[in-house]
Amino acid sequence: MATAYLLVGSNLGNRTQHLQQAQQFLRQAIGNILQGSSVYETAAWGVAAQPAYLNQVLVVETALPPFELLEKTQEIEKQLGRIRSFRWAARTIDIDILFYDQLIISTQELTIPHSRILERKFVLQPLTEIAPDMLHPVWQRSIKNLLDSCEDNSVVEIFGKYFATDNKI
Fold first, then answer.
1. Fewest beta carbons within 10 Å, which of 15, 94, 97, 119?
2. Angle between helices 15-29 and 66-79 (to 10 degrees)
């Protein structure tokens, strides 16, 4: 079994419902959710004229190898209504693989650790909540240290909590 860190986000429609549905699909198709950060609200990144995002980091235990995990997360996105139109477009759901154990993968289809973790406070803040001392496998710096040195000055606010026992946000 492997441990994967996933960032789940939504900025269209009923955002909390989309996050909850994604959690259900992830449990069914990928594995047990071991831990979840609080849900954070942030302004859209990349294209500013969009609704705000809700984002959450989930720690998932999975038997799927990395490329199969990517395939399953993309299937879940599609099932939940994601339409890929242009980079950073608004979406009902987005599921990014941040880490997969301590693996380092760099292909056209998949990059692990996620290539933009260092520049995104909306990723680092929830990661720091649940894994502050985890070392980034490439940079060999703690997640907390990466957050402290992140140049992204966007506002990342707690929107709600993740409850592992009843799946409510």
1. 119
2. 140
Q: Which two tokens stand for residue 168?
A: 């409510």
- The structure's pTM equals 0.92
Q: What are the catalytic residues? A: 82, 91, 94, 96
Beta pairing, strands 105-106 & 94-100: unpaired
* Structural domain range at position 99: 2-112+155-160
Give the pLDDT confidence of 68-88 residue by residue, as tens digits. 999 999 999 888 876 665 555
Q: How far apart are CA 39 and CA 29, in angstroms?
A: 22
**Does residue 146 sit within a domain?**
no
Helix and strand element counts for the chain (H, E): 4, 8
Q: Are strands 111-112 and 156-160 parallel, antiparallel or unpaired?
A: unpaired
Question: Which CATH number is 95's domain given?
Answer: 3.30.70.560
Percent of the chain with pLDDT over 70: 89
**Count of domains in the chain?**
1
